[in-house]
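so i finally got all the pieces together for this one. its two components total, 557 residues if u count the protein bits. some of the lines might not be protein, just check the labels. i wanna see the whole assembly predicted at once instead of chain by chain like last time, that was a mess tbh
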Amino acid sequence: MVSQENAGPDPQTNTPAKLHVDDLSIHYGSHAALEHVSLDIQENEIFGIIGPANAGKTSFLKAINRMDMFDPNMKTRGSIQLNGHNIRKVRNVYGLRSRIGVVFPLPVGLPLSVYDNVALAPRLRGLKDKAELNVIVERCLTRAALWDEVKDRLDSLGSLLSGGQQQRLTIARALSQEPELLMLDEFSIAVDPVTTMRIEDVLKELKSEMTIILVTNLVQQARRLADRTAFFLEGKCLDIGVTEDLFTGEVKDQRTRDYVEGRFG
Amino acid sequence: MKTMFEATPINHKNLGRQKLFRFLLGSMTALLIFPVILIMGTLIYKGAPVISFDFLFSNPTNGMTEGGIFPALLGTILLVLVALLASVPLGVAAAIYLSEYAPDNWFTRIINLAIINLAGVPSIVHALFGLGAFVIFFRFGTSILAASLTLAIMTLPVVIVATRESLQAVPMAFREACWNMGATRWQTIRRIVLPNAITGILTGVILEVSRTSGETAPIMFTGAVFFLPFLPQGVFDQTMALSLHLFVVSTQVPEMPEAVPYGVALVLIALVLMMNSLSIALRMYLRGKKKW
């Protein structure tokens, strides 16, 4: 197995992994979405996941956030450890989810004002102080490259923003959780290229504060951002390594090279 | 360019069908409106002359053939209000549980089936149930409380179904987005789901008010009486009610002036419309504020 060589502590720094995934399989009924995936994600790295549709990328993220609890059809096997704690044994699943920010490809602007959308997570934590909330809202919207467009209409409904704006609102909301782990699933799908670049710059800065998992269809986006990248295909993790190696160095599976060079997928 | 937009035979056929169905559907709608206009027209034409301040706000006299209908008017308002107080909290709470918490298993499905069946039970059966349960077993006697609780039980399915439908109309994606941030089910319900379902819940309440104020059978056995010379002093008193009064003045009193039953019916309908317009106004206000 390719991935097993990466299990355990980071060989360079010898710190324990932020996220340790061991033999994870995910089934929806009889359909296997992910099979025997093992990998480690280190603290403060951007970890890219690339692969064509139906590779199990989104299911992988869902399992980390315990979203299998929403779907009685979704069954997971294997173990996922965040900070060394098995997330399946975590009693306070709400506490777990509040530490993980997640952005899915279909933007969801909650039917609240723009301000309330971003203030929701701090409020759920019990923060009531207006001044503190103002600071958080402005900081998160700025980081999500949305502040300039909405600063004059924070009272308008988040669900009535344009698709691209809702996408950035969703990112701002995830950031407002002040997460340890930020999971982005195709965040740029509804965002124009210029704004995408701005958000990518922000992600590079955020790396010092949090660990980021970046699922993307854009191979070049992974190359620009990710420290290490995994290639998923049909529910299997075929390759994993330092991002540049997937493009230029040695790959374990020829299909990885074919994919990153655009020969299939 | 002329040939490009010339109608082909298939265009002609489609246009013909379009006209036909538009006419059919439109005339069905017209048929629906017709009886409403007829009823309202008759009631206003025959009943309006007897409506006066005295008619609304004085007691009936001379074997109900003269005087007003105040005890019945007040009685209906009280019956509806107490019934709402009982059924709205109970029905909304049950609907929230069924929509947001209950697992999808055989037990939940049986409960849902039971609620639908409860809606199909004839009102006279509810009346006998109310008599047995509230009047006799709980010793409320024939009283406003017993009658209102009977009405509440009868209209619970309306409230539950309307509330559940409006909760489920809130997209699942909103809930998941909220849960993903670490919100509990209750935080999600309180902050996202309920505020967006409130207009649908009010629709259920409107339906309930309309149905409750017109019912006769359930209150006949449990708290409403033909004639009372005084107004009810509390929920353990009996009361007159417009619906029962209408039945009485239409069929039970000889030499009743012809206009009186029309007047009573007109007041009953006007009362329902007034109570409804309050919640319709609230609904319009809330709908203006929330959207997705």
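Residues 103-178 of chain A form one domain.
Residues 39 and 167 of chain A are 28 Å apart (CA to CA).
anyway lmk what u think
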